[in-house]
Amino acid sequence: MISGSLGCGLVLLFLVYCAFEDLRAMSVSALAFLAMALSELGWYLARLFRGGGADWRGLLLGSLPGLFLILLSVLTSSAIGMGDGLFFLLIGTAAGLPLTLLLTICTFCLSAVWSLGVIVMRQVRGLPRNPQFIPLLPFTLFPALLWCVQSGVIAGVPA
């Protein structure tokens, strides 16, 4: 897992970029995923060369939420975006299973509350309740920022 302020900053930068791209364009560039994957690979190689070893079990377990979302994307004909699965796959390999599960659960809960609000507002305005695209990744920002404050990565903010 990626640790320390630099590693957390890298993950947070990736998260912010993906959230805004998902909100703006309803997709995230494959180059962003490739850049993050290469950054993580470099991080793990540097750790191996320094003799720190690699936590392969943690790496594989952390990727499970992302792999599950990718499977759901395939099974639902992309009702859940493939990019969401790739995002959580990369976050999972960087942050580990506990944090990724927490981030995934918080993200889906926030998204569900927002979606319910959209449905209610459409009903109140007399609009059809047809399904709309609601980007998932912007809902990762709040729980991720809370995690960064709690872990001390963002200093100067009372936890």
Give your account of this protein's structure.
This protein has 159 residues and is mainly alpha-helical. The chain has one domain (4-151). The chain is built from seven helices and no strands. The radius of gyration is 17 Å and the shape is elongated. The model has no long low-confidence stretch (mean pLDDT 83).
**Distance between termini?**
23 Å
Q: How many β strands by DSSP? A: 0
The percentage of residues in β strands lies in under 5%
Biggest sheet overview: none
Uncertain regions spanning at least 5 consecutive residues = none
Order of helices and strands: HHHHHHH
State the share of residues found in helices, binned by percent.
over 70%
Shape: elongated
The radius of gyration is: 17 Å
Strand pairing plus helix content: what structural class?
mainly alpha
Per DSSP, the total helix count is: 7
Mean pLDDT: 83
Overall number of structural domains: 1
Provide a compact summary of the structure.
The protein is an all-alpha fold and 159 residues long. The chain has one domain. It has helices spanning 4-25, 30-49, 56-62, 64-75, 82-95, 97-124, 141-151.
How do the helices and strands line up, and which of them pair or pack?
Layout: H1 4-25, H2 30-49, H3 56-62, H4 64-75, H5 82-95, H6 97-124, H7 141-151
What key attributes describe this structure?
single chain, 159 residues, mainly alpha, 7 helices, 72% helix, 0% strand
